[in-house]
Amino acid sequence: MFVDYIDTPLGCVEFKASDKGITQVIFSGEIKTHVIASDITTECKKQLHEYFAKARKEFDLPLDPKGTDFQKSVWYCLSNIPYGEVVTYLDIAKMVNKPKGSQAVGGANGRNPISLIVPCHRVIGSNGSLTGYAGGIERKLWLLSHEGFEVKPSKESQQLDIQNVIHSRQAKTEFLA
């Protein structure tokens, strides 16, 4: 397993790869281990730098996510959401032929091991609300704004502060190797 890190405006991001592709991209907080780089992690680091510099809108990396067939079908749909656009959980549910499966889609979305590259932050509630995000709703708001998506001001979004999560590890990572 290969591992590397990048410091971003949203805190430290850890990414891991197998010989086949990227297996994990998460907000790691302040936890870092020894870097073991590969060609894949080196290219991932380059592309993430470009994304945060607004010089990249699509990632071109081999992916090797671990999950169920259903989760992988949801993550595939997420990978096809264009930069700066959003879809709803219901939209994804329909794409995977589970039109009543919005909650299941939300569960798969929340367990996406490859944040940013598989853009789970681009999924919102049917009413336009930001809903949850394993990296913290503050990060989701920042990412959508970074991509040029205009988030409707709300009492909730006006109270968010990226400093609340910048040093924290994202939630729902206990299942990752």
From TrEMBL:
A GO cellular component annotation in the UniProt record: cytoplasm
Stored InterPro entries = MethylDNA_cys_MeTrfase_AS (IPR001497), MethylDNA_cys_MeTrfase_DNA-bd (IPR014048), MethylDNA_cys_MeTrfase_DNAb (IPR036217), MethylG_MeTrfase_N (IPR008332), MGMT (IPR023546), MGMT_N_sf (IPR036631), WH-like_DNA-bd_sf (IPR036388)
Q: Where is the Methylguanine DNA methyltransferase ribonuclease-like domain?
A: 3-65
Main localization is: cytoplasm
* Signal peptide from the UniProt entry: none
Q: Which UniProt keywords apply?
A: Cytoplasm, DNA damage, DNA repair, Methyltransferase, Transferase
> What residues sit in the active site?
120
Q: Which GO terms describe its molecular function?
A: methylated-DNA-[protein]-cysteine S-methyltransferase activity
Reactions catalysed, semicolon-separated, are: a 6-O-methyl-2'-deoxyguanosine in DNA + L-cysteinyl-[protein] = S-methyl-L-cysteinyl-[protein] + a 2'-deoxyguanosine in DNA; a 4-O-methyl-thymidine in DNA + L-cysteinyl-[protein] = a thymidine in DNA + S-methyl-L-cysteinyl-[protein]
All residue ranges annotated as the Methylated-DNA-[protein]-cysteine S-methyltransferase DNA binding domain in the record: 69-148
Family matches, as Pfam families: DNA_binding_1, Methyltransf_1N
Q: What is its EC number?
A: 2.1.1.63
Q: Report the record's Gene Ontology biological process terms.
A: DNA alkylation repair; methylation
What compartments host this protein?
Answer: Cytoplasm
Give yes or no: UniProt keyword Hydrolase. no
Query: Gene3D superfamilies given for it?
Result: Methylated DNA-protein cysteine methyltransferase domain (3.30.160.70), Winged helix-like DNA-binding domain superfamily/Winged helix DNA-binding domain (1.10.10.10)
Q: What else is known?
A: This enzyme catalyzes only one turnover and therefore is not strictly catalytic. According to one definition, an enzyme is a biocatalyst that acts repeatedly and over many reaction cycles.
Q: What does this protein do?
A: Involved in the cellular defense against the biological effects of O6-methylguanine (O6-MeG) and O4-methylthymine (O4-MeT) in DNA. Repairs the methylated nucleobase in DNA by stoichiometrically transferring the methyl group to a cysteine residue in the enzyme. This is a suicide reaction: the enzyme is irreversibly inactivated.
Q: What is this protein called?
A: Methylated-DNA--protein-cysteine methyltransferase
